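Annotated sample (chain length 170).
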Amino acid sequence: MGQDIRQKAQERRKVIIGIDPGLDGGIAILDGWSIELLETIPTETKGGFIKRQVDAQKLGNILRVYPDAVCYLERVASRPGQGVGSVFSFGDTYGCIRGVLGALNIPVYMVAPQTWKKELKISSKEDSLKAIKDLYPDMKWLKKDHNLAEAVLIAMYGIKEREKHDKNDI
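Output written by the structure step:
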């Protein structure tokens, strides 16, 4: 019986969450190569300095359904030329996502955009959309869906990384 529980837990760990952070970012949850969930990061409108922010409660409700998943979160940083308000808002978004994942005890692996894009041979948002349309031709992908496409690709990168680790553990 204990062996069955451990085996099921191991199988469940194959559920990978990919997150392309940002207020218009995406969340993809893959079980193997099958997309279980694909949606934009939930937000709420606020008054004051930050007009829109992550709805942490809704994000938590989405992710708590996958307690044994592993998350691959794109590592982000400010870029030269970004305004102070923009940098603050993006940092608030990123921190909220990390906080929700931490509160749910979901292991997080941060991956630089250059790393996953190099591995998957992606150089632009257009490449992301083309790759995802080729991989999932039955789904309707619009140009505005590039963040969702990148969330799926980040999760796919996570699957490849887990497969590498599984091979090394044998």
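Annotation: The helical segments are 2-12, 56-63, 84-103, 113-120, 125-135, 146-169.
Annotation: Strands lie at 15-20, 26-31, 34-40, 43-45, 52-54, 70-74, 108-111.
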